[in-house]
Amino acid sequence: MEPDDETLAKAAQGGDAAAFETLVTRHYDLIYRLGFRILGTRDAAQDLAQDICAALPAKLRGFRGKARFTTWLFRIVSNAAIDRIRRRQSRDKALDGWGEITQLARADDAQKQQETAWLHQAMNRLTPELRQTVALVLSEEMTHAEAARVLDLSEGTISWRMSEVKKMLRQMAREEAVE
Amino acid sequence: MNDELDRLKAALKSTPDPDADAKSAAIALARKNFADLQGSADSARLTKDSPMKAGFLSGAKKMLHTQNLRPLLYATSSIAVIGVGLVLVLPMDRLVPELRPIGGVTERVTMREQDAASNSDDLVAAEPVLEPAPLFAEAEVSSESGVPAALSKRKSVGALAIADAEPPALGTEDRERFANDAENPLKITSEDPVSTFSIDVDTASYAYVRSAITGGQMPDPAAIRIEELVNYFPYTYPAPTTGDDPFATSVAVFETPWNAETKLLRIGIQGEKPAVEDRPALDLVFLIDTSGSMQSPDKLPLLKQSFRLLLSKLRAEDKVSIVTYAGSSGLVLEPTAADDTATILAALDQLEAGGATAGAAGIQLAYQQATRMRAEGRIGRILLATDGDFNVGISDPDALKSYVEQQRELGTYLSVLGFGRGNYNDALLQALAQNGNGTAAYIDTLSEAQKVLVDQVSGALFPIANDVKIQVEFNAAQIAEYRLIGYETRALNREDFNNDRVDAGDIGAGHSVTALYEITPVGSPAILNDPLRFSGATEAVSISQDYAFVKLRYKEPGTTTSRLITTPVSPSAERADEDARFAAAIAGFGQLLRGGKYLGDWSFQDAITLANNAKGDDAFGYRTEAVQLMRLAESLAK
Which of B:145-204 have CB within 8 Å of A? Predict the structure, then answer.
């Protein structure tokens, strides 16, 4: 039986390097995946994941075992991703991430290509906070309550954010219909 | 209508896999940093964030604990990226928090030693709790440098360490933070007959809601504090008769607009309005945020105009001093008689926005000013004007709040005026004002400045009662269920009511405060909870016909022992005057904005109709404006 995250985290806090490595290896994909959904490119998500891995040994000391390890980790990743977007915005106003269309080339068939273009357009319209919420609620299939715990917001705020997302998507659909 | 969300969800599924090399490189880096950290563990592991905390577990603190200040910490410390380490190995007489910004601030302000000494008793009394500290609990990842936080932690010095920060993101992205809690739940009288809360005279939430709605956006539900919406409006409750308590309580019971089977209980408190000429002289310190983010027209320029308005209400014996904080904190105006308007206005006009915000040093300087000005028979107050974005200065809002709380004990009040949108930090400003026994107002237009600083200035500046708490005991023989509308962030424990050490809200001259309960009479079809099958021994025994009994405690300013006022709520209190109906309309509106869990199919349209018919005189036009907001909200919600 594999030890659970919380047990590993505790062991790692006590200095157990093997436990720490198991933990990081287990969750690297999760870190990367969440980062990708907020940031929108593979490179940015990989950079973010690397930064988080680098800082995790120190940050782990702040994990008190009050929440599930993944809830704690999701929070770190989503906050770090948002900070990254903000820093980028402050340096230059150029949009990247979900604004870039470079990844379109990878889509093989027309249907998929269209869907990818739509996705980029949609994500690009969402504020970082809404993207963060979408990544947790839609992709990680969290309930609003769980996402609220990760982001340390009220459940009402999550529900409100999701309704904003819906509103925006509907608006997009209306615009498409006009075209 | 979830098609769009499903589509988005499906599209997001196609996340490309990470590069295997990148993955192993990242894991290798993690391994290395882990090993490095173990080597330095003994020297790196320091102490608990602050033993101060144990000494400050007051009611105010409890009231604050539910606010979402943690996201605020993320917001600030995530930009001040690295090394927010806390070092606290101080001798007891230095336990006063030093809000000492490092970097960016040229003029350093330290607390005067005697202030520190006079506070230390208080602190020693409480057993400091020292736990092993999470060194980097709130510090964010340094993604630019890739340097593990541990390697840079030695930058930190002093009780509060401030990291050298990357400049904060400029631009207009939304960094607003709000203080709120989940809606108060329905309580069953037989199980939990007592409801206790602290009064709240703030109105910031209303002005914020107005600013959002008139800007074409529905406000974030977290921004809605219903009691602040209700208390924004003046009501004509009976004034206290002379010689008695400084305020009068009046209760009314009337039908709930959104539920014919329940009733609303309104508790109205009216503070006395001392004759203007009797008021004590004021020592005001304007503490003005002149950081770069204050540049937009709805901030510093509006602030200057607002203070100009305030000057017109001051008298010759009042004094004004101006302190600014930004890249450096500075005394802009020495205490000046308020009728020397030329000097004061010239100083105000000179203010320009620029630099980063270091709120802490500014606050200390302002308190030093206030302490210098303090004299017998005068009231000292700091008016902090800011957009609340302390984004460089402080890494620990808790310590800042404690500091404000200490200064309150020494006799200086703090009020907060919030300006601007975009990075308005409601949570921190609320916290500061609550701990400083002051009010928090949000100024979005010059007419709001007129309301806060001219029309209702005496309420904002002259406290007539401190630590006002309300406790309502419901009669289970009459009332089956009840629910307090709003006041979520002001809840107190039942035992806190009689504990004079527990802090609560204050009432200023002429203030009125309103609290509403939705109550469900025994036998009403609207009762939501079924009776219990196995523990039905809670049959109510009271033969009283009264619905409830309202108790109110307050302290005269400057005293430490509370006085009690009691008011029974009898069925004969039933009447729905204009004030009551208008307050109900606003409470309903607020609940709609928060999701309207208890409202059934009651709509914005119903709120508009109800409010329209209860406008009364509306001398200042506030109620008319509220109806317009409801209309706008109705269209925005569609």
Answer: 146-150, 166-171, 173-174, 180-182
Distance from CA of A1 to the nearest CA of B (A): 23
- End of a domain among B136, B155, B174? B155
Given pLDDT bands bounded at 50, 70 and 90, which one contains residue B490? confident
For B55-70, what is the mean pLDDT? 38
- Residue of chain A whose Cα is closest to the Cα of B144: A51
Please answer yes or no on whether A156 and B222 come within 8 Å at the CB atom. Answer: yes
Assigned domain for B179 exists: no
CB contact under 8 A, B30 and A79: no
Between CA B198 and CA A167 the distance in angstroms is 38
- Pure H helices in B471-598: 578-594
User: How large is the ipTM?
Assistant: 0.83
What CATH code is carried by the domain that includes residue B474? 2.60.40.1230
Whether residues B481 and B601 fall in one domain = yes
Q: List pLDDT tens digits, range B212-269.
A: 898 888 888 888 999 999 999 988 888 887 667 888 888 889 999 999 899 999 999 8
Instruction: Domain of residue A29: give its range.
Output: 1-94
Regarding whether B472 and B458 lie in a shared domain, the answer is no
Q: Are B467 and B200 in contact (CB under 8 A)?
A: no
Q: Are residues B498 and B399 in the same domain?
A: no
How many domains does the structure of chain B reveal? Answer: 3
> Over chain B, what is the mean pLDDT?
73
Q: Are residues B198 and B302 in the same domain?
A: no
Task: List, in sequence order, every residue forming a beta bridge with B255; answer none if it has no partner.
Answer: B263
The C-alpha atoms of residue A24 and residue A86 are separated, in whole angstroms, by: 26
- Answer whether A54's CB lies under 8 Å from B148's CB: yes
Instruction: Answer yes or no: pTM beyond 0.80.
Output: no
Minimal Cα–Cα distance from A92 to chain B, Å?
10
Q: Give Cα A126 to chain centroid, integer Å.
A: 13
- Tell me if chain A has a CB within 8 Å of the CB of B39: no
> What DSSP assignment string belongs to chain A?
-PPPHHHHHHHHHTT-HHHHHHHHHHHHHHHHHHHHHHH-SHHHHHHHHHHHHHHHHHHGGG--SSS-HHHHHHHHHHHHHHHHHHHHHHH-----GGG--GGGGG--SHHHHHHHHHHHHHHHHS-HHHHHHHIIIIIS---HHHHHHHHT--HHHHHHHHHHHHHHHHHHHHHHHH-
Domain of A15: which CATH number? Answer: 1.10.1740.10
Highest mean pLDDT among B279-283, B315-319, B349-353: B315-319
Q: Which amino acid is at B417?
A: L
The residue ranking higher by pLDDT, A169 or B79, is A169
pLDDT confidence of residue B355:
57
Q: Is the pLDDT of residue B485 over 50?
A: yes
Same domain? For B242 and B232 the reply is yes
- Asked if A58 and B136 come within 8 Å (Cβ–Cβ), the reply is yes
Model pLDDT, residue B629: 94
Tell me what percent of the residues of chain B surpass a pLDDT of 90.
18
pLDDT digit string (tens) for B352-376? Answer: 776 555 556 777 888 888 888 888 7
How far apart are the CA of B111 and the nearest CA of chain A, in angstroms? Answer: 31
Kindly state the DSSP code that residue B60 receives in the 8-state scheme. H
CA B23, B25, B26, B31 torsion: positive or negative?
A: positive
Higher local confidence (pLDDT), A179 or B98: A179
Residues of A in contact with B141 (CB under 8 A): 51-52, 54-55, 59, 76, 80, 83
Tell me which amino acid residue B498 is: N
Residue B585 pLDDT greater than 90, yes or no: yes
The domain of B397 spans 276-463
Give the residue from B236, B265, B235 showing the smallest Cα distance to B253. B265
Q: Report the residue of chain A nearest B140, measured CA to CA.
A: A80
